[in-house]
Amino acid sequence: MVIRTLDYSSSREVRLENSTAIKEVVSLFFGSSNLAIDNRISNSILLIGKITPNYVLRKPLFLSIEYDENDLIIISEDVFNVYGDGDSQALALDDYITSLIDYYELLSSASEDDNPTRKVFEKIQAYIFHQKS
Q1: How many domains does the chain have?
Q2: How far is CA 42 from CA 17, 29, 81, 93, in A?
Q3: Between 46 and 80, residue with greater pLDDT
Q4: Cβ–Cβ < 8 Å for 84, 90
Q5: Residue of 59, 58, 52, 57 lying closest to 133 (CA atoms)
Q6: Residue-wise pLDDT tens digits, 10-33
């Protein structure tokens, strides 16, 4: 498991070999040791913390890294079914974050008029906090 922290002033990468170590690191950020960690394949990223200057993850997201037949890198998750792609992991991750924020903003604008959309928006709000500037 690779944990990457994004801060826009710095980026760190830590390799963790077991679920106990993952739980310890995540509990530092989120204050809970009651985490259910599934042992995903090594081609994954645990996205935590500030993902843009105005958006912060409240809960970590496990992102999968895959390659298509043309070696394009695809980063996705199964919570919101959002993905990003690019020629490098950094570009694919940037595209994923852009797509996730676009999805958040789309739900935010539509949730006032539509009850089912409001429920989905409440779910994404459990994961993402928008810091208004």
Answers
A1: 1
A2: 9, 21, 20, 16
A3: 80
A4: no
A5: 52
A6: 445 555 555 566 556 555 555 544
Where in the sequence is the domain holding 54, given as residue range(s)?
2-130
What is the chain's length? 133
Contacts of 78 (CB under 8 A, 6+ apart): 64
Task: Tell the residue number behind the tokens 């200057």, with chain if given.
Answer: 53
Tell me which residue has tokens 């070999």. Answer: 17
Question: Helix or strand or coil: residue 57?
Answer: strand
Helix (H) or strand (E) holding 30: helix 19-30
Question: In this predicted structure, what is the pLDDT of residue 33?
Answer: 42
Distance of CA 115 to the CA centre of its chain: 25
* Burial of 70: CB neighbours in 10 Å, binned 0-12, 13-18, 19+: exposed
Q: Are 61 and 18 in contact (CB under 8 A)?
A: no
Of the candidates 88, 82, 85, 2, which has an alpha carbon nearest to the alpha carbon of residue 45?
2
| Per-residue CA distances from 90 to 25, 50, 76, 83, 122 (Å) | 22, 16, 13, 13, 29
